[in-house]
Amino acid sequence: MDLNNILGVVLAGGKSQRFGQDKSQVKLQNKLLIDYILEEIVDEFKEILIIANEQIKFMQSQNISVIKDFKSGVGPLGGVLTAMKWIKKNNKHYQWISTFPSDTPFFTKKELKYFYKKIEINESKLFFIKSKNKRHNIFGLWSVSLIEKLEADIMKGERKVEIWADSIGVKTVNIDYKKPDPFFNINTKEDLDKAVKEIQND
After folding, report:
1. What are the backbone dihedrals phi and psi of residue 37, each rounded to the nearest 5 degrees, phi first?
2. How big is the CA angle at 102 (ends 50 and 147), to the nearest 5 degrees?
3. pLDDT per residue over 152-197, tens digit each?
4. Which is nearest to 75 in space by CA: 51, 97, 55, 39?
5. Closest Cα partner for 81 from 142, 162, 169, 133?
6. Does the CA dihedral 102-105-106-111 come out positive or negative?
7. CA–CA distance, 153 with 53 (Å, rounded to integer)
8. By the 8 A CB rule, do 34 and 10 touch?
9. Tens of pLDDT along 33-72?
10. Residue 14, pLDDT above cutoff 80
11. What is the mean pLDDT of the chain?
């Protein structure tokens, strides 16, 4: 798979309601949470786009840009569409976007490379990672050719990634892992405490 055809996208536009503040900006062992994922992917893509609706801090890199959602309150699907619209508006030549959450400190480029290695690109326009019978809908590879269908469905009121992906015919790549769980995401302060303990025990 040609990574030059893929735009890396970090979805950081959520409201973090369960956490109580913007969790991408929380520090875990003196490092911003969003920087964990950025450090793993920054050298894998020609460009990375962060979707964030507030001013945020993140590691400095010439190939990272930040934009707001094209419309507020439409969830991760809105972030995906925002990235696709950015590609079209700026006459970029990316054919795919690869999405990542901003709150998974244990995900590494090893999982990313395995994901790409196992994808049969002609089988679908949408691919997600799966592990231990759980599908991770934010770790995805989305064809930019889905833009019109995605926009039409969002405008009709679709908000759930799970439902929309099933309607498209998503394919999954299963990834086994040993601790720490690379897909562990931080939704609450308790989750943050668990992540701290995981790092301390590593």
Report:
1. -70, -40
2. 50
3. 999 999 999 999 999 999 999 999 998 899 999 998 889 998 998 8
4. 51
5. 142
6. positive
7. 22
8. yes
9. 999 999 999 999 999 999 999 899 999 999 999 999 999 8
10. no
11. 93
Look up the pTM and report it.
0.94
Distance of alpha carbon 79 from its chain centroid, rounded?
9
Compute the distance between CA of residue 129 and CA of residue 150 in angstroms, rounded to an integer: 20
> Which helix (H) or strand (E) segment is 193 a member of?
helix 189-201
What is the bridge-based pairing of β-strands 134-143 and 96-101? antiparallel
Structure-model confidence comparison of residues 114 and 179, the more confident one: 114
Q: What are 156's two structure tokens?
A: 């009709």
Burial (CB count within 10 angstroms: exposed 0-12, middle 13-18, buried 19+), residue 78:
buried
Contact in structure between 54 and 122 (CB atoms under 8 Å) = no
Q: How confident is the model at residue 23 (pLDDT cuts 50, 70, 90)?
A: confident
Residue 150 and residue 173 in contact, taking contact as beta carbons nearer than 8 Å:
no
Q: Does domain 3-201 have CATH number 3.40.50.2300?
A: no
Could you identify the residue written with the tokens 């090893």? 110
Where in the chain are the domains?
Answer: 3-201
What b/e string do you get for 44-55 counting C-beta neighbours within 10 Å, with b at 16 or more?
ebebbbbbbbee
User: CA dist 139 to 1, 27, 30, 182, Å?
Assistant: 17, 22, 25, 11
pLDDT recorded at residue 196: 87
Which among 41, 50, 178, 51 is positioned nearest to 115, based on CA atoms? 41
Tokens representing residue 189 in the block: 């302060």
